[in-house]
Every structure is written in structure tokens, then in C-alpha cells.
Amino acid sequence: MRIDIITLFPELLQSPFEASIVKRAITQQKVGVHFHQLRDYSSNNQNQVDDYPYGGGAGMVVMIEPIDKCIQALKAERDYDAIIYLTPDGERLNQSKANALSLHQNIILLCGHYKGVDQRVREHLITEEISIGDFVLSGGELAAAVLCDSIIRLIPGVLGDESSALSDSFQDGLLAPPIYTRPESYKGWQVPQILTSGNTPKVEAWREEMAYQRTQALRPDLLDDN
């Protein structure tokens, strides 16, 4: 998979890709992540990419021309399965969306800034809009990092045990069940006996029941969706 990220602040994105599972995926060439400085596509002598909104109002708007030039330059080199704009009013990111995106070969992520981008970008250049929650960030870089992490960990061969991702919260519409490890007893706090019984069918039945109970208590909306 290849992910191209268009941004005004590539330095905000570097750290999340330099550690842990994501770094390993890049090192093993399971995924390639490339940052593109939007100012490099400005036709302005000062590399300006934003301007005042028509009709007045507070804040600045990222102009369409540099965004279009960057996207067209990338599309001239390869085909893209999706061109995604990170925005608070986009489709809410969930596990199902992450699963679908992880099957793509090439995607572009556009990070907005200031008051956002010219609406014509969204109408003519973008294929999908994604939000990581009902709140506003200073820019789309952190949202892009979150989206990338959720996708990259699903690529075959990235996780040491590929079955691990299948037991994550939300994969089956439920929260994950409680998990424990050694020691079996700590300060009198015991691991549930069923987990040390060695009875695999009973363990799996317990996990399914706990997943349902946790979801019912903490996220009943997920049960409504099912």
C-alpha cells in the first residue's frame, strides 16, 4: 500500500510514523507513506496557499489551485483508489471503514487547515471525507495519523499475529472482552478462574458473554446498530 499525505505541516506527521508497528510496516515495505508540502505547489512568490473567504468572515481558506496541482501531479504517476479529505463534518471513522480502506493499494489524504479548503476541492477533487470525531483540531495532520494507524495495522503481515486484529473491539460490532496476564493473583485480585481452566470452548463462551455485557454497559448504541 502507498499513502500520500498532502499537508502544510509535514513536521507534525513525522513522529507517529517513526515508532512501533507503523515504523515496522514501513521498514518492511508493507506500506509507503509520503508527505507532500502543499506550499511547493503554490504559484505565489511567497508560496501562499490561503486567502480570505469570499463574502467576508473570520479565518482564512486554503485555495483550490495548489491542492489541484498536487493531486494532479500524484495522479499522473499512479492511479488512486481514494482521495480523502480529513474534516470534522465527514463520515465518522469506524472499524468497518478502516477495514475497507486497508484493502486499497494507493490513497491520498488531504489535511485541511485554517477554516478549511475551498468548497470546489470537496466537490470536484475529493472522493471521500472522513472525520475522527465531533470536535475540531488545528489541522488535519493528527486526524491523518490516526487514520493511517488504523489502516496500516490491518495490512497482512504487519502484526506479529494476524489473528490479533480480528479480536479487536468493533470488529464484530462489540467491545473486546476483559484481558488478563500474569500473575494470576495480585494483591488478592484474581484472574477469573475460567481463563486458567484450559477449557477452550468455555473460555471462548466466557469471552463472548463478557464482550456482550461490556458493550451493553458501555456502548449500548453498538447493539442498536446491529
Structure commentary:
There is one protein chain. This protein has helices spanning 11-14, 20-27, 64-75, 95-101, 119-124, 141-152, 200-218, 220-225, and strands at 2-7, 32-37, 50-51, 61-62, 82-92, 106-111, 128-131, 185-186, 189-190. The longest helix has 19 residues, at 200-218. It is elongated. It folds into two domains: 2-152, Alpha/beta knot (3-Layer(aba) Sandwich), CATH 3.40.1280; 169-225, Trp Operon Repressor, Chain A (Orthogonal Bundle), CATH 1.10.1270. 33% of the residues lie in helices and 18% in strands. Strand 8 and strand 9 (189-190) form a beta hairpin. By secondary structure, the protein is α/β, with parallel strands linked by helices. The chain contains eight helices and nine strands. The mean pLDDT is 93.
Short structural summary:
With 226 residues, the protein is an alpha/beta fold.
